[in-house]
Amino acid sequence: MQPKIDEPDEEHRRELRRNVFEITRLRMSGRIDEMMRYFARDVVVRYHGTKEGLFLPGVLHGRDAFKENIRLTDVNYEPLGGEVLAILVDGPKSSVRWRNSWRHRNSGRTATLDMAHFLYWRNGKVVEMFEYLDYHSWGRSAAEALIERDDPRPR
Amino acid sequence: MTNSEDFFSRPPPGLDRDEIRRRVELLARQPAENGDFAVVRDFCAQDVVCEFVGDKSRIPYAGRHFGVDALLNILRAINIDFAQSEQQIDDVIIDSGGVAAQASRAASISPISYASRMASSSN
């Protein structure tokens, strides 16, 4: 049974931590349908990306639009590895800071990004998400920060 | 696989939530109107670790730095390059000793810094 969201007890906090960690793992292993189970049908996704590269600023409404944007991303970029650096939970609010690496499918160039996501939960689902990111560049420092693939692809 | 419960649990902060929130709001409003970062020195440990994520070939302070003096030097350098205003905190998440904040500020490159960069690029 889902704990009441307005009771910030430790079990609720642990469950949200597990959920957030699982979202990052499913994203980088390409298991998007499984990942979408954590998001409400009418989720609002707010991207605060830089104005260069693929991850552009904008707002998406609904799980279908969110999933389609991930599909378009993965057409161009292969997700490699990811590493979660911190997860915080505060009642129905959570944030995750993580680092992930991507390879452009045409050029083969790799990029590593640090991302912060703020996820707001209601009845066990994410109803709103904010994304912030910074690039480690495409150059030598990107190679230094690269995280190799850490999870097998789905068969 | 990482045990997320153990890995992400945090030690008690030694401060109550209201005080943490107050300090976060003060830090977000730095620098003060006189350009001073005294609050940063007050609230950060002497051996604080800070990390600025970015392209090291374009952002000189990108990377990990140790100590409050290094942090203050970077903040002052940013404040020389950019005029900052309209600092605003949209949300704060407090989990034991960890804090995440969504914050924004307006920044414009200062005329002196812009002229200096133009001179550098034309040499």
From TrEMBL, chain A:
Pfam families, A to Z: SnoaL_2 (PF12680)
Protein's UniProt name: Nuclear transport factor 2 family protein
Signal peptide: none
Domain SnoaL-like stretches: 29-129
Record InterPro entries: NTF2-like_dom_sf, SnoaL-like
Domain of life from the UniProt record: Bacteria
UniProtKB/TrEMBL annotation, chain B:
Protein name in UniProt: SnoaL-like domain-containing protein
Taxonomic source organism: Methylosinus sporium
InterPro entries tied to this protein: NTF2-like_dom_sf (IPR032710)
